[in-house]
Design a protein that fits this description.
The protein has helices at 5-25, 30-46, 51-59, 68-94, 112-135, 142-160, 162-165, 173-207, 211-221, 244-248, 256-261, 268-273, 295-310, 323-344, 348-369, 377-383, 393-406, 442-449, 452-467, 479-499, 508-530, 537-540, 550-555, 557-563, 573-578, 585-590, 599-612, 623-638; strands at 97-100, 108-111, 224-226, 229-231, 280-281, 469-470, 474-475, 567-568, 619-620. It is mainly alpha-helical and 640 residues long.
Length: 640
Amino acid sequence: FYRRRPVIQTLSLVWFVLCASLVVKQNDLIAVFFAFVWSFLLAILISYKDAKSVIKNCLGIEGSELSATQQSKNTRTKAIVGIITSSFSLITLGTKYVEAFSRSEKDLLFKSDFHALCIMAGYLAFDLWCDRMCCRQIPPRLLTVTEDATTLSVLCAILAKWNEWDFSSSAHAIPAVAIFTAYKIIKFSLQILDENRRLVSNEIDSMAMTETKGSKEMEKESVWTIHGMDYDLSDFVERHPGGKESILLGRGRDCTALFESYHPFTNRHRDVLKKYKPVIDVSKREGKCNVEDDKFYEVLKERVIKTLKENNIDPITDRGATTGRSLYYMCIFVSMITSGSYHVKGNPLGSFLFAVFGWLLGAIGHDGGHFAVSRIPLLNDVGVWGISFLCNPIMWQHQHTYAHHSYTNDFDHDPDLHHFSIFLKVHRKFQNESIYKNQKSVFFVFFAYAFVVFGECIKIPMEMMKTGWLYGMVEFTDKKRKAIPMYLHYGAYMALIVLSPFFSGKSFLVSISCVLIHIVVAGWLFAIFSQINHLNEFSIDIVNGETKDKKMLENSWAAQQVTTSNNFATNSFFWHIFSNGLNMQIEHHLFPGLNHCHLHVIQPTVQATCEEFRIHYKSFESWPDIMSAALKWLEKLSEE
């Protein structure tokens, strides 16, 4: 069967010509062609490391033999494309009308169900092509192929006769399309899980040849490293008061900083840990967090507990959002939905406001990512998705909650230092590149900042999903559990932010302007309030700062958090709201599980304690001051 590739290629070419003829005859079906091409390009993007091989496979010019692993990878890629395309189809259903132009003199208005079906038809065409050329699982997937071929034929017939049969007037059209699309999303999701199991099985089979390596991997899956000791806490995951997501974030790596900084107002966590015997001593392992015997942190915690209680805030039960803070979340969410509807309609002002409210909604995403929205774990798990317009929420917890907060400004362990390396040098350990000379210009810096959200939502998540690592320093430890949600966010972001304005009926120039306005404005807001809190000379080069006790800097995790972070305008309500509470970054890094609405209460206590211990507490009077310090640091590095 595989030897008849010329026949298959010929039939594929004939099919393509027939489809092209149909589109030329009824150009309203151009969306089918675009969906097909979009699916093909998206498959290449997802498999960017094997892009050349994917192109050859899809064109039928690659060798016929494929390993089982490669077949599974190709099938998984196809399913991921299906989820992204189907998600966009559902979003298209949410738009009221889409303008389309026929060859007739009269302009027609088609309901969104027509274009949603066009998108699904284009994907199904790609699905059939890819099945034969890339996955080569015929006849084992004969039933699925038959289903897709039959469905595609029916869809093409419906689309060709859409006006004649007057489907738009049917009250069941949109629900039917929605149910069909949802069915395909569920099917694709199950397919990804199945292929992941196959890939894992293949990996286990290959690992079995090296028993030592295999045992290490299995060991890593079930241990938490705390204070230099490995513990097996598997049986405690479901009973963890803070929810299983928070405890699983530390599995398979050193989670000492998480363990201590998220339980600062109690000793119960230590009492629970005593019930478990260490599996192994790894105290000499590289990258170990030092939070043990931190005298400064112990004194600070006692004083903060006292301060909170004096202000009628129970450190345990009241650490989440207040009623006022919750109402603020709701107002921003409603504003974001409203402005988002204008972005989808191709309104540039709506896109601008959508970016602004998307940034402000990041407040609940940030709090949720730190398990600080509520003591109810589910609310935190849902809340973290508020960061979706700034960063992939799944990646955020590995990149930010775990790595950045555990190893702030540590070149070898903090991924936040490596986001801009293509444009900016933010640390002396980066090798000099000619492009870094441009960072002395404010305009160049803001040009680089314009890509922040693009990187956090599109580029970096794709690399993390592909490699299982973030810059080779943060492992995607729960890839098996979180792969599908990560792909869903990717698809939804591409569909809602990038593609939806092009289906608004507005001109190409207006549509692309909406996309660029949203991405650039969101990137600027994210950068000027998050990056500047850690990027200046004495936050990077802390040894040369004003902290007198250099030994404390080496041994105290809390002291490191203070010296690598910066505050600004701590008495300003406006900057506290507009910066999403990031103007009190020092307090946030010391007590990440405390909602941002409480940070102003403890700020004077933290500052006074730092001054007592002679730890450099950097607090700028205003936002321009801290921004200026960041720009001066970048300019200094450009000249070195």
